[in-house]
Design goal:
By secondary structure, the chain is an alpha+beta fold. The protein contains four helices and nine strands, in the order H-H-H-H-E-E-E-E-E-E-E-E-E.
């Protein structure tokens, strides 16, 4: 059975695979569609990014934590995590102050989901990395400086 599934996955195009999964009832139409805030991802400054996300002036919070290395040897693949103990978290975003586009990642969390995300981001240079969390309709933020020895954005 496992070999059959693997062969199907190898031969299917992305659209065909999504159709196959939907037809099998594994995913519902629309489940595979991600919400994308184009204005937020295109924003160049932190202020413009926060405005596009509807965050205004988020409050600093000890209930939000940013994890990552103190020094990243390769800015092309920097592991960054965000977690929060705040109740009712619906969105988590990672912003990198000195990148050409500040918003590196944004996650929409379904109700009841633990607010804990991990990803890898590109960093062009040493910068503050911000975790933005939306909980109960309010925005909270935490920061961590990550030093980059080899830039990942063309450096």
């Amino acid at each position: 059975m496992n070999k059959q599934r693997r062969n199907v996955l190898k031969t299917c195009s992305g659209a065909a695979l999504m159709s196959l999964l939907a037809a099998a009832g594994i995913i519902a139409p629309g489940m595979a569609l991600a919400e994308w805030n184009k204005a937020a991802f295109d924003a160049k400054s932190m202020a413009d990014t926060l405005k596009a996300l509807g965050a205004g002036a988020p409050a600093d919070s000890k209930d939000v934590q940013v994890t990552g290395p103190d020094i990243a040897e390769n800015g092309a693949v920097v592991p960054v995590g965000v977690s929060s103990t705040l109740p009712n978290v619906t969105m988590v975003a990672i912003l990198i102050e000195k990148n050409p586009n500040a918003l590196a990642a944004s996650f929409t969390l379904p109700e009841g989901t633990e607010a804990n995300v991990q990803t890898r981001v590109k960093m062009g240079q040493t910068s503050n990395v911000y975790a933005l969390v939306k909980a109960d309709g309010k925005f909270f933020m935490a920061t961590k400086e990550i030093k980059v020895t080899l830039g990942g954005c063309g450096g």
